[in-house]
What we know:
The protein is built from no helices and 9 strands. The protein is mainly beta and about 130 residues long. The strands form 2 sheets. Strands 1, 3, 5, 6, 8 and 9 form a 6-stranded mixed sheet that branches. A 3-stranded antiparallel sheet has the order 2-4-7, with no helix packed on it. The model has no long low-confidence stretch (mean pLDDT about 95). The chain binds fe (ii) ion.
Amino acid sequence: MTEFKDLFQSADWKKEKHVPVIDSPDKVKKSEFFKVSLIVGKEMPHPNTTEHHIRWIKVYFHPDNEKFPYEVGSFGFDSHGESIQGPNTSGVYTHPEVVCSVKTDKPGVIYASSYCNIHGLWQSAKKIEVE
Ligand SMILES: [Fe+2]
């Protein structure tokens, strides 16, 4: 049986449209909110149709030297063109891009995961220093 963790794919986001891109400062001030933006398809746009789209992005923070990560946010993208007339007829689409504010006392790693309804689970990570 495949381990759940082995279902998460990763790649260079400049070449792979599914990778959730984490944009945030490399270094933040202790206990001050900073913005973390998350986008799937930053360099290469991912399709956004009823048949093929990004469903969600989840974000975690794992402080250095701690055992467990903390879930920071969970963002769903729920409109992909569907309507009573059929697929891709509503003209309403949610783009897989969000910004959230986070603060931390400790340095660590931001982890992001995303889910494409046909191409599965993707992940990325970014180190955050605290001054
Ligand atoms: Fe996809």
